[in-house]
Prior knowledge:
The protein has 185 residues and is an all-alpha fold. It has two domains: 2-121; 140-185. It has seven helices and no strands. It has helices at 2-23, 27-47, 51-76, 89-112, 128-138, 141-163, 175-184. Helix 1 (2-23) packs antiparallel against helix 4 and helix 2 (27-47) packs antiparallel against helix 3 (51-76). It starts with a helix and ends with a helix. It is found in: Cell membrane. Pfam families: Oxidored_q3. Its main location: membrane. It catalyses: a quinone + NADH + 5 H(+)(in) = a quinol + NAD(+) + 4 H(+)(out).
Amino acid sequence: MFEVVAFYLFATLTVVMFCITVFTNNALYALSSLAAGMIFISAFFFLLDAEFLGAVQIVVYTGAVMALYAFGMMFFDSLSLVKEKIKNPRLVFLLSGLIALLIVIIFVSPIIGQNVQANLPIHPEWGNTQDVGVVLFTKYLIPFEVAAIMLLVAMVGGIILAGKRMNTSYTQLSENQIEEQKEDL
């Protein structure tokens, strides 16, 4: 029962975060919700007792999104264009509090309840982490290296694209010039 409730909660939260990423006009909101979505994806790994992969998901992918967050703040000067308008702050506070409470209950309930051991295909001498390392660096070494090269190319491309607009800052421009630059994009 616990796993089903946790799965549906994390699935809903993940989809909501990625929808915010896609549909928002604010770069900082998009990056924040992308990071939250990556953290919620790591919850699936923890539910499947793959703690190593869950930790890697948080450290690697969420760390990469936080690096994008920093680049977004530096290069796009997004904070000068943010005008917050929350129509009902009490509702937002209530919903975020309820979601936080549900997440805490989901993480605490296995500690309080019965700890049922799952029948997982883990090597008895090595454990989960060593199994992942052996499979990753033997069977999936070439796809792992191709993914690393693709990430490197994407990072260099992002730096090149961001460097083209480094000569102007939104804080130095007037409102009309900002609108003209938005239309050019």
